[in-house]
Amino acid sequence: MRVGLLTAFIAVAWLGQQVQVALAQTRPSVSPSEPAKVSAPKESPPRKEAGVAVSPYTAGLVTGPPQSTEFAIAQDIATTLASGQETGPRGEVALRVLPMVGNGGIRNIRDVLTLAGADMAIAPFVLVDRLRETRTIADIQNKLVYITPLFVEEFHLLAPSEIRSLADLEGKRVNLGEEVSAAAVLGREVLNRLEVKISELNLGLDAALDGMRKGEIFASLLVSGKPVNLLARYAQADGIHLLPIPYSKALQQDYLPSTFRREDYPNIVGSGESVDTIAIKCALFAYNWPTRSERFQLLEFFVETLFSRFPEFLGDAHHPKWREVNLHEVLPGWRRFGPAERWLQRQSGGEAALRKAFGRFLEQKRTSNPPDREELFQDFMRWRERKQGW
């Protein structure tokens, strides 16, 4: 019996040794200095979390970091729509918008596609287009709709005084913002198109600014709508200025030209000076909830409230970027949220009918001067809105 056990043990040991030899022959060797290459798995279509949102009356809006214009716009929406509503017995309101801090980039879109409480996201149109073209996030075309285009976001490329042009950044350490943020993804694309080779860092803005003061970082990119309040507080005495980004032919297909002036950043841009840069359009996207679902109905109520109260956002109390918003603007290649499309069609059709009736009225009054005609119509529309309590 002992001899049998010993023989079995020797056989098992021999087999184990042969398996190790076979594996060593088939597995490629990896040197300590060479990282193993792992192929990225093909991503399956995103799925919303099974849990329900925090409240059937609360719409989640994913936005950029706290210092960004996207966050300021989301706060404007949340505070403005919270006012003027009838409250319930415990102070609850029929509609609440909850800003959710994101990074303004791919994470925003991924959150709105997966998180139960995330109904909407503010994101650059170009970035969302890239995700659709590359299929980085599968099935995005069917899962995402847009409510309205918003405003233009400028590329703020901050640099110390010794850096005067993009050519000075060749081979140097440049911060493009947190990984998968809009600044990181699109900043990398822009620098590649302009053939500027850098050593990329992915830090937050505060850490990057501190690194520039210490001479460890030579530029930092922020993509956000001007003016960014945090930047407006920086003085030229800090030795930090806005670096020009030329609107070259390589960028004209996907980007827009823009300019920083003294009124945008009086503590950074000198009197009578201007700094050329590029910009992108951002939009308010929403998850394509099933029709008749609770979340679909909540977003429908949100659209009705936001669009009908849109003139309130154009006042001085709100961010100046609201004045760039055109609710009727269309995003090519994307489907608008159904209730938003219907609201705009109703408004356009109603105004057209009013203009036609008003024209017949003026014909009877023999008012033929076109400027007087338009001025009278606008007065009439304002009077009509006051009468209806709009």
TrEMBL record:
One Pfam family, short name: NMT1_3
According to the UniProt record, where is the region Disordered? 26-51
Source organism:
Bradyrhizobium australiense
Name of the protein in its database record:
C4-dicarboxylate ABC transporter substrate-binding protein
Q: Which PANTHER family match?
A: SLL1037 PROTEIN (PTHR42941:SF1)
Q: Which InterPro entries match?
A: TRAP_TAXI (IPR011852)
